[in-house]
Specification:
The complex is a heterodimer of chains A (328) and B (194). Chain A has 328 residues and is mainly alpha-helical. In chain A, 68% of the residues lie in helices and 0% in strands. Chain B is 41% helix and 11% strand. In chain B, the strands form 2 sheets. Chain B has a 3-stranded antiparallel β-sheet with strand order 2-3-5. The chains are: A mainly alpha (328), B alpha+beta (194). At the A-B interface, helix 1 of A face helix 1 and helix 7 of B.
Chain lengths: 328, 194
């Protein structure tokens, strides 16, 4: 569906897609809470949750029940409107970000020509939500966490965009469907084979952009209690949590589409390959969270400005030169 | 510049090593025991330091080796030991141990000149009142001796005296080492290698 000729059927498609994306986000959060806790347990040689339901499979459901039933506590002197706008603002833009993702050859809600621009532009909203949450909650840890979130997010967005730009150069399109279509069926014909450095840079920045360990400075428990969401309880906290997992899923889908061949895979193309690849990236994120200790803030910025940024510029330059010589 | 790049490559390699370790732990068997349904294998408790117990006497197992010197009571930072010397020689008439005050620091075990105290392997100690945590260790020793003579086993605290110095210490060190290796968290391994 093109944006230029929005019709009634197009609107219905969009509404259905939004509902499906909400369902996907909630189911993803439930599955990932369980997977993360089990993964953490197994890596530390504990069983993880096992008391609630068989193998603890009902644990995330019970967790969300607990969060629903909790009192929403508002500290004194908060900026009331911003305090409640922040979790909503963290959650809802993610909805739009899923629309241009090509889950399958047909299963794409919004085939816009500049899909990746849409994603990168709206991804900044998450950052704004973190900033507002920290600022509005009248808490020193909150404001420190918000400051960290902004300086980290702004810094890591640049190498991320440059890494994705290398792939865009190569494909000659910003349309995610075309980028997925341009890749082959087998792993050696995916973009990861000809852009390994861009893939690596994207993998590092993706962890930083989603505020996950080892780059979870904005909510570093040891120094900031919970960073920007210190003062949030009940569903406010749950919305931040949901948004975090939704953001993780989004960057994993972008990773799968840009570098891992999207819906193309051995034997039979289809949406299952997109999901398998995206969830493989998610498992990787969980794996490194429980492996690496948190970096210090100066280390975090050093990694970005001294290594990732020059490397991504170099990668982009080499890509451009090779494309000029060889031709697209 | 070259050395900085080389250092960073080495750093990346150490990250890979860490990830290999956690991946290995992920697939390794779990050590956790689901307590109410299962109990810990007594062999895994060899290095466990539970509440104090009196070691058995050399000739008469129901007799304590305690000489009522009060070193343990004086050395205890929590004042949880009460020893009263009896009329008969050096033997104590009362030996009370308040586990609710004990921090399991082991100062009493270290200081005892007669090797009369040691840590027990009692893991499942549950009471509903604090008073129940005040234990009469003389009565405890008598009941244990009545239950049967000591079976010599490696790593047991009593073996320290029976086996004599070096061999028993080596056995204990072995037990400690194996339990440490089993419980070694992924984090510490990463820190060591990275």
């Amino acid at each position: 569906m093109e944006l230029s000729n929005i019709s009634v059927t197009g609107l219905i498609v969009l509404i259905v897609a939004c509902l499906l994306v909400i369902a996907l986000m909630v189911v993803n959060a439930i599955v990932m809470v369980y997977a993360e806790r089990k993964g953490a347990g197994f890596i530390q040689r504990r069983p993880g949750p096992y008391e609630v339901g068989p193998w603890g499979i009902l644990q995330p459901v019970v967790d969300s029940m607990k969060l629903l039933g909790k009192q929403i506590f508002v500290p004194s002197n908060v900026d009331f409107f911003l305090f409640f706008a922040a979790p909503v603002l963290a959650f809802f833009p993610v909805l739009i970000l899923f629309l241009p993702i090509p889950f399958g050859p047909v299963l794409t809600a919004l085939k816009v020509p500049d899909g990746i621009v849409l994603i990168l532009a709206f991804a900044g909203f998450g950052l704004l939500a973190n900033l507002l949450a920290g600022y509005a909650s009248n808490n020193k840890y909150g404001i420190l966490g918000a400051g960290r979130a902004v300086s980290q997010g702004v810094a890591y967005e640049i190498p991320m965009i440059l890494a994705l730009l290398a792939v865009v150069f190569q494909t000659g399109s910003m349309n995610l469907s075309e980028i997925a279509e341009a890749q082959g069926r087998w792993p050696w014909s995916w973009n990861i084979a000809c852009q390994p450095l861009a893939f690596f840079i994207y993998l590092v920045t993706l962890v930083a952009e989603t505020n996950r360990a080892p780059f979870d400075l904005p909510e570093g428990e040891s120094e900031l209690t919970a960073g920007f969401h210190t003062e949030y309880s009940g569903m406010g906290f749950a919305l931040f949590f949901l948004a975090e997992y939704a953001n993780m899923l989004l960057v994993s889908f972008v990773c799968a589409t840009f570098f891992l061949g999207g819906y193309k895979g051995p034997f039979l193309d289809g949406f299952w390959w997109t999901f398998i690849k995206a969830y493989a990236v998610m498992c990787f994120i969980v794996w490194i969270r429980w492996t690496f200790p948190r970096v210090r803030f100066d280390q975090l910025l050093n990694i970005n400005w001294k290594w990732l940024l020059p490397l991504s510029i170099l990668n982009l330059w080499v890509t451009a030169v090779v494309l000029k010589i060889v031709g697209p | 510049m070259i050395s900085a790049i080389w250092d960073n490559l080495k750093g990346l390699y150490s990250l890979l090593v860490g990830m290999c370790i956690t991946a290995r732990y992920f697939f390794a068997p779990r050590k956790t025991v689901h307590y109410p349904r299962k109990v810990v294998d007594p062999e895994d408790l060899a290095a466990y330091r539970g509440p104090l117990e009196l070691t058995r006497g050399k000739d008469d197992e129901s007799r304590t080796r305690c000489i009522s010197c009060q070193m343990c009571a004086k050395g205890c930072p929590g004042n949880c030991i009460t020893v009263v010397k009896g009329a008969e020689g050096k033997l104590p008439s009362t030996w009370l141990y308040d586990f609710s005050l004990c921090c399991l620091c082991g100062a009493c075990v270290e200081v005892c000149p007669a090797a009369a105290i040691d840590f027990s392997h009692r893991l499942y100690l549950v009471t509903t009142t604090r008073e129940e945590l005040v234990m009469d260790l003389l009565a405890d020793l008598k009941s244990r001796a009545a239950a049967g003579p000591l079976k010599p086993e490696a790593g047991a605290p009593e073996a320290l005296e029976a086996g004599g110095g070096a061999a028993a210490a080596a056995a204990l060190a072995e037990a400690v080492k194996s339990s440490k290796a089993a419980a070694g968290a992924a984090g510490s391994a990463v820190r060591k290698e990275g």
